[in-house]
Amino acid sequence: MNPYLVLGVALDADDQTIRRAHLEAVKLAPPDHDSKRFQAVSAAYEKIKDEASRHRFMLFDRSPLGDSPLDVFFRWAQLRRQFQPLPFEAMKEFLRACSKT
Amino acid sequence: MRSAAQKRISCELAVNTNQYNPFASARAVQQIASVSNAAATIDIPPVLDPFEKQARAYLAARRWRKARDDFKGLVKKDRAKFLPLLIEANVGLVQEMLGKGLVSEAQQVVAYLKTIASPEITRVLEVQTASKSGNTSDALPQVVTLLATNAVALSAADRIRWADQLVLSFAPPTLVTPTASPAEAQIGVEARAVQEALAAISAGEHDRGLDAVRVLARDSSFSHWRLFIKGLVAFHRGESEKAERAFAELPPASAPARASEPYRLLLCAAPLANRALTEPALETMARLTGHAGWGRMLLRSQAEWLQGRHIRAYQALREGARGFPSYGLDLPGVLSDFFFKAIFTLDENARDACEDYFLQIEEHQQQKNIAEVTLIRRTFCLLKQWELDSAMLKRKWEGFLSGLRELSGESRQRDSLGYGWLGEVLGQILPPRRFGFGNKRRVRSANAAMAALQKSIELDPANAAAYLKLCDVYEAVDRNSERNRLLDAMTARFPEHKEALLLAGVGCLDRKAYVKGIEYFERALQLDRLDPKIPDLIVSGSLRLARQHFEKGRLDLAQPALKRAGELLIEQPENFLRNPWCHLARRGVLEDLYGDAALGAELLQQARTASPFPAAFLLFVRIVQRLYTKGGKAPPTLQVDLDAVAKANANARHAGALVRLLVFWAGAPDAPPLQFEEDWVRRYLKNAAQQPFTRDEARQLVELLEPRHEFHKQANAFVKKVLAQDRRDPLFRLYEYWLDPQGFMSFNAPGRLQGILDEATRRGDEEAVKRARKALADLKAPPFPVEPDWEEPEDSDEDEDWDEPPDFAEGPDFGPGFPLPPLSPKDARMFQDLIDLLAQLPESELREARKTRPRDIPAEMFDMLVAMARGGKLPPLPEVPQIPKLPMRPPPQQSPAPKPQAVPHKDPNQMDLL
């Protein structure tokens, strides 16, 4: 799991930003509420908490974000959670396609 | 309950009078159908007209066409009586045709029906026919009327479907004419409200969207659209749970329910597994994430990936998407990251194929952008770090670091880590040479490793790991003074770095700077009081310091050192450094030799009493005597005592402890040659084997002796004795096999192991089963691991490629009259290694190598190889008997090159502890 996406920080985020994002994420997913998410957040923080860790991640990390291209797409979209509204024409087209199946 | 006949009457009334009856017209179609079904079961009154009888029989048998034709004729005779039946037959016919997909034929029948039946009946049929034909727009006015006046005539699914069609027609407002009824006008208003809401959401105006659907009543045919709009708004506002709740309530067969799937997937609410995603859905998701046009590419890439065509999966995106590959956290960035990291998780064949493809791109400079070539180099170096030659690895890794600078900006710390990694990989300590010769540590590419590590330190002087690795490399290539300087620099720079302090301390002990060494260890102990190796090192240093003082007559200075060692003693029988009785024995010998002899005798007596058994004490004291005495002599009385003990009291239980004691001293750096002690232990073992012992004692002893070639004979004695008791004991038969120098080479080895495995299985001896299986597997593996050809020649320059090894594919040139079969490339390389080694070994080491050569290499062969390596004359070969040709077995499959363990920093447990 990409730690930057998990914590929602940019690639060039500094220690303080990452720490803040980590605390925010822990607040949203405390261990007694969502232990899985908490573990993911903690693991992500460990990977990029300081400059040396971030460099090591950049140089040597080998764990892919998902199992397949689509899986990666979903994980990325779910972690990023920044969605744009569909253009009206695209929405019409999509809804019509849904009505045919 | 109304009878079927009554139902028919009311239906007929409705048709004949053409009056609107909400109950009759609402269920007209169902009633007609139920009547036709009922007719098959009720008693039909006697009919005089045979045609009528025939027609009714057809109707009852659902033979609609025949019934219709007959009733057509009958209607002419009695319209009032037979018209309902003719309508019923035609309705049945339309339903049958629609069921068979005969839409145009059905439309013709509906057109005919419109001339004889009421609009309530035909409207439903018209809508159904239009629905089947796909030409919904023509039927929309009918749908409006139907939904407005007769919605209950439709099933819930049909009502939802038609409401969806009405919304998704995005018909102009003129659909509902000014002459429409209020109910029809309301339907038009509701459909337009949904459309307005959708438009508002597309424009990002969420409140307007919600306001638009407020007109929809809870029981409206469009009420599910209100849920959908609510879900969409919540989705875009980031209210995941609210969105999911709204989407989950949608009727499953509705268009909004299907349309909500991509949103739900993006919310992580619906699992991806086993879900067949359509291209429109995926494209919608791509658009929602701001990547219009990616849906098709992703779908194709996914399909290729799942089929195991990984390169094509990559190509699907590479060729289709302008921004792919890239470096970053956007979609192209994470997908690029995925492809270059997923390689590490693929099986070997798939990985090789990907490597070849990416390497082609890099070598032919066909990269799409700098990100691609950078990612390729990174992946390639991490994958092939054990196989690439040093120069290529360095070139590619530096290329990667340079690319990273371009993509992500300059960073000396990152570059330092990168060069540190390169130094660590190139500074790998190689496994010992084959054939067991030579014990000098070999480094994969010492010069290149040192250069990389020095650069790493230069880039970031705070990179402690680079210092430690550089120390390792210096040690491996015997650059001790540079190593010591580096260690001193490290301890000054990293006063709180435990590993650095320990290494520096050990370096000090090596150069007899004991006080400084102990100081380093004490500082390390302050940092980590729980690390057991630090007290070991302090005791080791203190004892050496004490000995130095004793030897120089500075007895007063020796005592504090001994005292410090005494403070760290522990009751561990196997720790011969910090065990109290061992400490007493050491002190006793030192006092005896250099100080107060009486005190020495007393201390030795105390040590003897505290020791677990006399033989251990005697052996330990003898070795300490030889170590501490100038000239390495021990009193002859000790030898006599030892011999007596070996004769009188030898037993298997104590033998193990004696072997461990010997092994401890054999690993000590300045221990004297232990030939006598080794012989004595062998004698002890021999005598112990003649005494009674348990199977478990024998097992423990053989486990200890098996890895030590010099004790195989004695181990065998124990094995044979156990097998004499139980000749089928699988574990001891395995020991027998391992201790047999020809065991694995004999032709019957597989059968022998299989027999052991069968017996172990029969007895349920799990340990023996496991080990027999492993032995069988080892037998099938190649005899020697193939080592990549990465070792740097002594005189090589870091940036220069060295000469290729001689080609022995045709077999080495032994000169005329020495025909040999050609060697495999692997054997040729091994042979070349051996010859290189023998050519370079100094005379002293050569003599040692001859002495310690493996048993299965005869001395004559060894001499012959040395002569060959050094260009001397070959000694005459003995006559070789003609060996009949045997059928060839297929060559064993080559296993991949072994990956040497990451070079451990010198383990202080194995450091010089004496």
Describe the structure.
- The complex is a heterodimer of chains A (about 100) and B (about 900).
- Chain A has helices at about 5, 15-30, 35-50, 50-60, 70-80, 90-100.
- By secondary structure, chain A is mainly α.
- The longest helix of chain A is centred in the first third of the chain and has 14 residues, at about 15-30.
- Chain A is elongated and about 55 Å long.
- Chain A starts with a helix and ends with a helix.
- Chain B is mainly α and about 900 residues long.
- Chain B is about 65% helix and about 0% strand.
- In chain B, helix 28 (about 515-525) runs antiparallel to helix 29 (about 535-550) and helix 36 runs parallel beside helix 38.
- Residues about 1-40, about 795-820 and about 875-914 of chain B have low confidence and may be disordered.
- At the A-B interface, helix 4, helix 5 and helix 6 of A face helix 10, helix 11, helix 15, helix 16 and helix 17 of B.
* Poorly predicted segments of chain B: 1-42, 793-822, 873-914
Q: What is the first-to-last residue Cα distance of chain B?
A: 107 Å
Please report the number of helical segments of chain A: 6
Helix proportion of chain B? 55-70%
The largest pleated sheet of chain A is described as:
none
State the secondary-structure class of chain B.
Answer: mainly alpha
Strand content of chain B: under 5%
Largest interface: A-B, 49 and 69 residues
Tell me which oligomeric state these chains represent: heterodimer
- Let me know the largest β-sheet of chain B: none
Task: Please trace the helix and strand order of chain A, writing H or E for each element.
Answer: HHHHHH
N/C terminus separation of chain A: 35 Å
The tally of beta strands of chain A, per DSSP, is 0
Shape estimate of chain B: elongated
Instruction: Provide the gyration radius of chain B in Å.
Output: 46 Å
Radius of gyration of chain A: 17 Å
Number of strands of chain B: 0
Instruction: Give the overall pLDDT of chain A as a whole number.
Output: 89
Q: What proportion of the residues of chain A form beta strands (DSSP E)?
A: under 5%
| Overall shape of chain A | elongated
